[in-house]
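task queued by scheduler; priority normal; single chain, no ligands, no partner chains; default sampling; output format set to structure tokens
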Amino acid sequence: MAIDQATFMPRFLDEAREQCARITSGLLDIERHPGDAEIMNALFRAAHSIKGSARMMKLLAITELAHKMEDVLDAVRGQRIGFSKGLSDTLFRAVDVLGAMLEEVAGGNVHDTPPADICEELERAAQGEPSTGEGTDTVTVGAISAAPPAKESVPVTSVSPPHHGSENRAKTESIRIDSAKLDSLIKLMGEIVSTQGRWQRTSARIREAEQLSAGLEEVLGEHLTDKGSADGREKELYRTAHGLKEKLSALDSLSRDDGLLMEQLIGELQDVSLTMRMLPLATVFDSFPRAVRDLSHEMGKEIDFVVEGGDTELDKKIIEQIGDPLLHMIRNAVDHGIEPAEERLKNGKREQGTIRLFAFYDGGSVTVAVQDDGRGLSVEQLREKAQQKKLFPEETLARMSDAEIIDLIFLPGFSTSPIITDFSGRGVGLDVVHRNVVEELKGSIRVETHQGQGITFYLKLPLNLAVFRLLLVVAAGRTFALPASAVNEIVAVPRHEIIEVVHRQAFRLREQIIPVEELAQLLGITHSGSEPGDTVHLAIVSNGNERMGLIVESLLTEVDMVVKPLPSHMKNVRLVSGVALGSGNEIINVLQVPTLLKGAREIKEARSVKPVAERRQIAILVVDDSLNTREIEKSILEAYGYSIDLAGDGMEALEKAQHNNYDAIITDVEMPLLDGFSLTERLRRDERYADKPIIIVTSREKEEDKRRGIAVGANAYIVKGTFEQSNLLETVQNLVG
């Protein structure tokens, strides 16, 4: 009987993708632990499993490619060939092709034969012939009982898939559920949690009615006692009041019991529902070791990439959104966080840099951290960069704390990279991280850095996006909500302990001075008519390295609530991230703590802000021997308001630069008479262009060309192969405004 492919294809694709992930992870492991026969056997089994399953599904091309990979791995197992970096590169390319073929099959496009070039390369590798780019160092894989790696070897990276084989997999029954249906269930659960507060309010009203009826019964009883006698109507009224009190008392008792049971059941429903959408962080972590390997090889750096805490679980919706921010941070660490080997050795470090990606549970949140032992950040360099870009007045920057200066790296367009490339330096990576983590996921970012020793980014994330833990506070007679993850603690201090420090209120908390602001003032709303008391209620909030005490009238409660996004026409409301529905059906604004902190800084600096003079039109010289390229770049830049002049080669550009004063130069490399590198070098000798931005736009993409661009003094290096209009505009904006 023929196999019904439509029935089994989804399962085959899932299993094949999992086996591809195991091959990728295994290749990374074997590079760290050469000679480990167990890892090599696992690689062989993964390729063999793909081959067998593909053959059952009549997928001939995948079967053939997996078979050739199996031949190579079997040759290494049998010690007929040695394992080398070149062989590893070949197998990586093969698994990439295999993954692409699986996605084509998923899209309904089935091929009869695999790509010939990768098959030929695998055949040559199985015969021991050198692969493209193969190194000379080879390692023979020993027997199954091979000794464990030496102590000085690279630490083991926790990137393996959660299941290493069917023999270790727990026998659990499962069914496939459409993720949209699961999302609907989670959403419904969130709404039920929100309505729990309304039930509690209803229960409180029943208790109030029971107390009123008890008071009525008592008054009527006293009246009858004082009167000494009563007619039938008075006795009936007393009996009615007594019966009403008894019924309300019973209803109150029943309501309390039902409330406790409902609270327990809703709590269990919430836990079970949220667990259904929880996934281990390994689902996103597992893709990074391969990316670090390829990027570090391309940049000529040796990097030990360590991953820990991959079994920490988060909401699937959060995991889907943190992949890009984490990749931005890791690429930044590889590109200009970790120093070149010679610089590390000169500074007394190991030649091999270390990047750690780790995660752990942090109270009711999860913290994901990216750490490297590279250059770290210089506060003074950041201050100078901010001054060059005129982000704040010079006197303001001088007064800013180290924590405030470090947080400038999250501003759009801010970068400390010596040159802008396709890897980093555009100033958009950390801006994306901040927007995704803080604004969209309602999390926070904290930075720890020491110049010359490295930097650590701590991303604190909520466990889920279905319900949020909120602290309800009152300011100016209105109820507002603060994300509980952003509130460090709540304190009540005598009003006389609030002191004045440099035109700003503050108080001392455990030997640390914490700035203080009225929440109502930050929100721009009028205070209520109540007189201030002798005690001040403070919610200590934080974002990254910055902390502040918010003065509120009262603190209500901490509760789980569904936060609904603002409608599209209100997306630009700065201080509010969403709204929640209170127990009395009132709308409660959920405040953005980072924006509140920014507003506090603006209030502090309001008197020192000076009007900015109207910006003159910025003049840019575009240099390229291709008329078409010059005209394209000119049209892009002129559409944004820049004044553009053109030159067809380096000598013409040099002459124009001597007779005119340009704000920036954009140049190609390959040009007659004078190339772009030489042009840049000669311009840097001119005092007028010693510090002017020079941007190289070229088809040369080798790392040595980019290093030469840095050496001659270029501020940015854009490869034409990856050229996009937004790249050029972002680069020019970052450098000249």
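post-processing summary
- The longest strand covers residues 353-362.
- Residues 133-171, 607-615 have pLDDT under 50 and may be disordered.
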